[in-house]
Structure formats: structure tokens, C-alpha cells
Amino acid sequence: MAKRKKIKELKLHPITSYIIMIAVIILLSAILSLFKISASYDSINLNTNELEQTMKTVKNMLSYDGVKAMISNASSNFVSLTTVSTLIITLIGISVAEETGLIQTFMKKRLTKINPKIITFLLILIAVFSSIVNEVGYAVLIPLGALLFLFNGRNPLAGIAAAFAGVAFGYSISFFVGSTDMSLIPYTQSAAKLIDETFYVKMTSNLFIMIFSSIIISIVGTIITEKYVVKKMGRYISKTKDDLDKTKEIEYLDLQYEEQKKLKEEESEKKGIKYATIAAAIVGLVFVYMIIPGLPLSGALLDTSEKAYAYQLFGTNSYLEAGFTYMFSLFMMITGIAYGIGAKSIKSDKELMEKLRTKLSDLGIILVMVFFASQCIAIFKETNLGIIIVAFLTNLLKALPLSGIILVIAAMILISLANLFVPSTIAKWEIISPVLVPVMMQLNMSPQFAQFIFRAAESMSNGITPLLAYFVVYIGYLNIYNKEEKKVYGIRDGIKIMMPYCIALSITWIAIVVLWYLIGLPLGPSVFPTL
After folding, report:
1. pTM for this model (two decimals)
2. Can you tell me the mean pLDDT for 403-415?
């Protein structure tokens, strides 16, 4: 038998991949527009609670208007993408805390004695919980996940994967009511009123099942990380300056000097931690005071135009949500500088700025990636291809003669497919809710259950779509911490790493939803899967 020649796998840089995707999208829009491909769907007017039919046609990006839109909007597409600002703001704060030594010392003092699997679980659990403030978890936890693993002697690539998977596949659930609830409930309630004009959806409608799901998703994510991802990534060998210093000290065999130096460092670290703790307490109290209503000069981060406190915190115009990234970065900067002063790890502002310059040097390539990713996402959105696909899948769901568990599973699969092309939660629910909610109500399933089905289903595919704005940040960090000079982590590599999470967590999500329905457990206080 003739030996088969191994075909060399094509490895593309992420930037090249996004450029190719842009070219394919433009060409596809030109071809489909010739055939006048379109789709219509019903959306709900939240003011009148009436259905309004919308028709979307594929827009030709090679047309005069299409070319003009691509060129004239290139800058705004990049600048308006929240990924850019949240990434830069977050990195500044984390870099200050890292370069002053705060993060290293904290992890050495507090985390090295904890079982690594518990640390992984806590990282994923916090990542899942982070969606209470929309997408802030992507910007904050991906770099922290890398450092958490790195300073515990583990491969930071596994930490990046775990953090991204936790946020992406556990998106829109948490232990408390959050911004996602504020966004979904108006559409869920309006859709329910198409069947029952008196129906009311409470903010806590999905609370119980969200708490349970957060824990289960974190456990399964931890198993995938430890049993597959950590082993696949292998050992991480990094010759840092500290490593080289230790090597030299061992070569000199100056054990007495080593011991004195260690004691001095521990004393400095102890003083630094004391300063950082005081700073953290002060900053933390100030931030807490800013979300307490009714006290003198308090509530600066609340939207006081809203009556309900939950809406003041997480509503559409929430100052807390808009400023959370900056608050986190400010917290890290102040505590980091306080540690640096106490531990004397920074001698002057110039030294700190030089350290920051070096640390943030890797940001350049990520920004270039984000630029091309932003163009790809914006151009795809401009073509209307995503909305047309969502509308088609929604109309298919409406046409299928299904009921019971089969309908639930089919709905989850179709919604997860739709999410690949339109990651925006509101854009999808606006189209899907007027169909899914009434259909399920007519089959004696509650609107709140339909809402949770949607939340679970979009989480099933969040981590494997390059059209998710933060997917490029995940890819960027994989390349920053990649130590194999000849290897570049591309889009396909990033998806490949996420596939075990996607498969295992999709099965988990479907199992949670189906079992909850069969057993009839409450979704929230006095709310059940059936009416």
C-alpha cells in the first residue's frame, strides 16, 4: 500500500485570517445580493407591545454605498468597539500591580498553598459570575487567568483558556440578577403579552436555576481544564530575570547571602502587603459608598432616573456598568503603587513608567488584531447576513411541528447556531422572543423558561465564534504568552482549544434545561418551567 503523503497544515496568523474573512464576506454579499436573498421577521415594539414586521435584504458591499461605508466607517468601527477601551484600561491597572510585585507576592502568600484544581474552579466560577456586569469578564479575567497560572508554576495558556471559556460558555448567568436580566426581561414580557396581556416577568425569574447552573458549569469547566487543556498545553518554561538570578545564586553557593536576602525580601513584601491592604480597604469603601443610595454625596454610580435598585445598578444607563472597567483598573493601580511604596519595589515614577512601557509593548499586535477584527465584525453586520440567518432559523423553529422536550432541544440547537453569526444578546432575543415565547406558552411552558432556554443556548456557542468581539483578545493573549517561536495561535487554533469546552458544556446546558423541565423545579421564586 502506497504511503500517504502528509499534507502540511496551513497555519495563518489571526490578522491574515480576519483579512481573508473580510474578503469572503464582501464577495458573498455581492453574490447573494444578485439573487436578492432576504428574510422577514417580527419584532416587538416595547412601547406599544405590538408586532412590527421587518424585511432585511443582503447588502452588496461591492456596490457604491457598500464601498463608501467600508472606507468611511473604518475608523469609527475600530474606535467604537468597546473591546479596545476596556482592554487598554484593564491592562494599565493589571500591569501596574504586576510590575510593582503586588500580584506575584499576593499569589505567593495566599494561593500557592491552595490545590491548583480549586484555583481553576474559582477562576471559572468568577468568570461565569462576571457576566453580571455584561462583558467586563473578558477584559479583566483573561489576563488575570494567565498570571494566576503563571505565578503558580502552571502554563498561562491554560489559564487564558479557562478564563475565556468561563466567561463565554457561562455567559448571562450568575448568582444574582444582573445586566442581562435588565436587557432580556422587557422583550420577554412584551412577547408574553401577545398571549396574556396581564403577564408579568419578575427580575428574579431565573435566579434559582442560574445559581445551580453557575456551579455545575464551573465544575464541568474545571474538569475539562484539568483533564484536557492543562495536559494539552504542556509545561511552560520561562527564563525570567528572577529565574536567572536564582540560577546564579545557586552557582555561587552563597547560602548565607541567599538566606539574608530572602528574609529582607519577606520583610519588604510584608510591609508592601500592609500598605496595599490599607489602600484596597479605602478604595473599596469609596466604591461601595458610590452604589449606596440615600446617603450624603452617595450613589454616584447609580442611575437615579430608575426606581428599582437593580435597574439603578444594571439598567441601560447604569454608571456602574459603564465605569466598572475603569474602577477595577483604578483599584489595581492604587493598590499596586501602595505595595510598591511599602515594599520599595519602585524607586521613582520614571522607573514605574519604564516598566509599564516594557510591559505594554505587546499591546501593539493585539490592537492590530482588534482593528481587523472590528472591520470584519462591522462589515458582516452591514451586510445583514447575520440577521437574515437568525430570522431564517427563527422562522424554521416556528414552522417545525415540535413540542415538549424535542422542542426545547431543537430551540437550543437553533439558537446556538444563530449565536455563531449574531453574538449580540439583544439583537437575537428581539427576533427570537416574539416566536419562542408565544409558541412555548401555547404548549404550557412559561415565558421565564423560554428566556432561560435562550440564555443557556447562546452560551453553548459563545466561545467558538470569531465574530465575538472579545474572541480576538483571547487569541491575542495566547500569542503573547506563547513561547514557541515557530508557532502562532490562529483563529482555528483558538477554536480547537475551545471545542472540548463547547462539546462538554453544551451537553451540560441541555441536560440542565431538560432535567429542570422534567422534574419541574422552580426557576426562581414562585416561577416554574410550566404555566
Report:
1. 0.89
2. 95
